Amino acid sequence: MRQLNNEEQTENRKGQGTDHENQTAQENAAQGARPVRPVRRKGIIESIWDFFASVPVGITIIALLTVGSTLGTIYPQENAIPSPNPEFYYFDTYGKLGEIYFRLGLSHTYTTWWYLTLVLLLAISLVIVSIDRGVPLYKSLKNQPVARKVLAIRGDRLYASKEAAGEEEMNRLGEALKKRRYKIRTEQGALLAEKGRLPRFGAYVIHIGLLIIIAGVFTRLIPGWYYTDMVWIKEGERVPVKELGFSLQNNGFELEYYDQQQTRVKKYETDVAVYEGDQEVAIKHLIVNDPLIYENTYIFQNSFDPSPMFKDGEIQLLDKATQKPLGTFHFDFEDPQPEYKVGDYTLKVVNYYPDIRVDKDMGIYTNSREPYNPGIQFDISGPGFAEPSRQWMMPMAPFVEQMLGAEYKFSLKFQQVDVFHMTGLKLNRDLGIPIVYTGCGVTLWGLVLVFYFQHRRVWARLEDGVLHVGGHTNKNWLGMNKEFNRALSVIDVEPVKFKKK
Amino acid sequence: MEKRTDLSKVVTVVILLLASVGILWAVFNFQNDEVVKLELGGPAPDFTLQTLDGKMASLSDYKGKVVLVNFWASWCQPCREEMPAIEQAYETYKDQGLVVLGVNLKEKTVPVQGFVDNYKLTFPILMDTDNAVAIDLYKVKPIPTSFFIDREGNLVQKADFPMTFEYIENTVKPLLDAGR
Amino acid sequence: MMMQLSGFFFGTAFFSYLAAAILYIVGVTGRKMKVESKEKATFWTKWGYIVMVIGVSSQAIAIITRWVYGGFAPVSNMFEYMSFWVFTIMLAFVVINAFYKVHVLGAFVAPVGLTILAYASVFPRDVKPLIPALQSYWLSIHVTTAALGEGILTISFAAGLMYLLVVTDVSGKSRAAKFLEFTIYLFFTLVAFILLATGFRGAGYEFLAGANTGSQLLYRMPPLAGPSGTDLGSLTTMAGIPLPLIETPGWMHGTNAPVGFNTVIWTIIGSLVLYGVLRLIARKPLVRVISKWVQGLDAEMLDELSYRAVAIGYPVFTLGALVFAMIWAQEAWGSYWSWDPKETWALITWLYYTAYLHLRLRRGWEGTKTAWMAVAGFVVILFLLVGVNLVISGLHSYAT
After folding, report:
1. Distances from the Cα of A237 to the Cαs of A240, A305, C142, in angstroms?
2. Low-confidence residues of chain A: pLDDT under 50
3. What's the CATH code, domain A152-196+454-489?
């Protein structure tokens, strides 16, 4: 490594020289920037380069990213809060500190300008460091001489020698090392055996892998490469996803709990269909952990609305006094009719609140569009009644009559009611995923190279009938030591032990 | 050799810096892109919807009048709050040429009819059954949102908060006076 | 049947670890140690190692039988996950010790593992069926690999701590000695918390504050700190003392903040008492007691071992806690990265050890500096595994 550092320095010194071609390139670079004195231009590029190539700078960027990332975990990020209004949510939930958190932009830490800038600085640093160190390393290993000075070989941590040896012994040693998958190069009276040169570049492989991951993440900026959305679909409903040009239909939703109290969900599954226009193009029984993939778009069973909604039901009309049934009618909670006829009786829907609330100050109103808690007000008229009888009916509040202290003339009974749930599907189209996964693969490969493989070299040199053999590895000296001794046993050299640093 | 090394350094640094600036620019442009706003001052996009009583109505039917388009829903509390003010303004200025179009978002006829009866609304209610007018055409984010359209059919003002009678009056009066 | 077997082997493992911890500590504190060669295993530590192997094997059986019983890898809740982490720590120790023969390491690893295991037992231990999000083979792949990585990184902490104890002059009042003493105190904080949590839970203590109001708070330790706005002494009594003694500050806004704050107070009091008692028994800073155990150990070897554990654990951690996590998240949540706190803390841990490796390999940091980093790394891992679940909730909150 020390040798390499020298070489790096020469590389850098070479860069100081001036020549015409460079200047033009830098002039191009400087265009659009503020004018700089010609002499200084070279210095700027050089100092930018040296800045990013420096290890302390790289470590500082990593440290800043580490600290920055922790800031984003203090309170939930905006994408994870159960409210569409972050400006109120943080204050309401976390008080003054929450307010400050929101004001500082920490409620979306990972998309702030400074966090993204840090990521990009890291990327620049990864590129420059890899070129700055990787290229000279590649060159020096490519151009390494076969013959080293005997003095240098003697100084190796692994060293052995054989008296009265010749080319024959050296070749036998070469053969033995070849069997151990070393690549052999020979010159007159000198031999270089090398294996695992690639692991020396492991760190740069990791850097490249990380760069691929970062690139894969940023591909979402390319129009059409990234789209994500959450759609809520009621049973039987079809919802268009305009951005992707298809519709999703919920053909049935199943929900099951492990226990009677409904505290632990066992499964929730949707029969989903994809429509292009009126054409059904894909169907799947969607379960968690198993998405439907349609034209690069992943459709996930993500969640569901735990509160059931009323779908439809049969309502029976009775004379309250005699409890005599007068007939039944079908009621659709999603889209009721203005009027229902039961025998001789007419039920006019005066008011319908799909999700009724009764409040002292705000009166009667609906809290949402969906029939979670329907409230219907009927005007019932028929034979024997001069005035229509106005009365409420609420399936969730069967004793509404008593609650209001009213005296109704009729009873209204639900006979069978269908409830249904809304399924929550997540859509995700991210064409960058294969790139990110490739980056992960490359990174892991690099890690394996760095930590589990070694670069081993053995040099042999004949001088005055003595074969000098030196060995070097970048790690795992014990393993190298064994291999060294085994190879040397072929030419009857006693085992040696590597020198401590 | 020397030339190449140095040139490649320059090129690398320049490309990296340009790419980073480009990415940052794209990220923030991308984020802003999501908020598409409707330009005020231009002509109001025309639309045709079914009314609560089953007729068809278009914005262009009311050319030459001052139109207040109000997007609302019965489950929205601030919408309920401003309704009486809108009704009052409509009754006060309809003779001078004010039209109110109450565009309901995706609700069904029966609950809307009940709501209209309870609040004694007299202006036309239009049923935006798939939110196409509200979201695609008028880029409505929160409701209530109201648009004021002058006699020439241009969008003059937008209010994305519950309005008071005074607010409507102050906005509508100059529009009614203009083009007389 | 399977469950009883699992419970039996789990108990065996627990007591084996306990026995191993005792054997190791006696081994390193005993007189023999000073006479014999330090590198050589004494009678006690040799048996400690054997008992440790028995413990690891029993826990392996306990995990497998529980797996068979539940039909899924037993890493789905806090108890299962933390005991699995202990398993990986002990396993990593058993394997590494087979190569490096640093028996004294056991005197550190065994008590740490035992403490975590005791803490794991505080959580509910029954096998609960899986919620849909966890019904995936990725559960076993992701969690076991991540835990293995974390287990190996924990060994780095133990070796780093030992290194510091060897090289630091603890007789004086140097800053390093004080920091070390503080680190030891922190360990006893953990122990105190576990003792208190287990104790009160064992006694079945529960107190429901604000039972007839909208905001109910379930205290599992007597409420020394009441919800803000409560009159002091108005809630309940403990041994005749009216509680609460103090009010939770108003700026602690979370729903369960008073309970958390109360637990913190109990833990601080408990740790001070525990530390005080031990200090009285030892009659000197505890760091001096413990540093005696490691005297004469090869510091360079410990340094190397600490680094080696990071070198092995880091790739495993990357694979398990980041790459596998991303693939599963993509399949289950529809996004490979959601900045969920657990995910983010895995990234933070990774960045932390990335900095460690660069400092060590490129800046030549060695010895004390990296040893302190390895010790602090344990705090990061501890927060990743436990702190995130207790303090921050997120997508991973079903793991509790």
Report:
1. 10, 15, 37
2. 1-40
3. 3.30.310.50
